[in-house]
Write a structure and sequence with these properties.
The protein is α+β, with helices and mostly antiparallel strands and 185 residues long. The chain has one domain. The chain is built from 5 helices and 7 strands, in the order H-H-E-E-H-E-E-H-E-E-E-H. It has a 7-stranded antiparallel β-sheet, sandwiched between helices.
Length: 185
């Protein structure tokens, strides 16, 4: 995972609640991780290619080709109680890297709102290199907490210890599935 992407991901997590405050509502802190895994949210996804400087639609064949051949693109997702920012990078081109031993570096940052009114959230920052024929490699994960209520903070941190790494790994796999199912199919 590149250092710049990690810095961008941390910055995104720390400021995302201020930038998109109206997009998210308060989430119950009870069983946060289980709710996130089970909940099927309607997502607003935005695909941006570093080369195209515009929003792209992966269902459009020309846009999908731009994403596939780009060296970097990003996906932003805004849901009711969470936001995500995923960066895909490969110097060989996204699909060339994905289908070779070079792989694609993914940096995935997600913010889960505990209490939007109080600007309280848990954030997950994960990175890995993904391949079409191999499991993700070099998986890294770091949690970020901004929770004022000590009882709630303790509960969320306990849940993070149990489920955080698993959820981050699942998010990396979902991000890899975007490549195999949409961009590089």
């Amino acid at each position: 995972m590149k250092k710049n992407n990690l810095i961008i991901a941390i910055t995104f997590c720390l400021v995302s609640s201020q930038c998109f405050a109206q997009a998210a509502q308060s989430a119950s802190h009870s069983q946060l991780f289980k709710q996130v895994e089970q909940k099927k949210e309607v997502k607003n996804q935005t695909y941006l290619s570093k080369d195209a400087h515009a929003q792209l639609n992966p269902d459009d064949s020309k846009d999908a080709e731009k994403l596939a051949s780009s060296i970097e693109f990003e996906i932003y997702e805004i849901g009711e109680n969470k936001m995500a920012h995923t960066v895909y990078q490969s110097g060989a081109g996204i699909c060339n890297g994905y289908q070779s031993a070079l792989g694609v570096d993914i940096t995935d940052s997600r913010t889960y709102y505990i209490n939007q009114d109080e600007n309280e959230y848990y954030a997950s920052i994960a990175g890995a290199t993904v391949y079409s024929k191999n499991d993700p490699d070099n998986v890294q994960y770091a949690p970020v907490f901004n929770i004022k209520n000590t009882d709630v903070a303790k509960q969320v941190q306990e849940e993070e210890q149990l489920y955080g790494k698993k959820m981050a790994t699942q998010n990396i796999q979902k991000s890899a599935n975007v490549l195999s199912g949409t961009i590089c199919k």
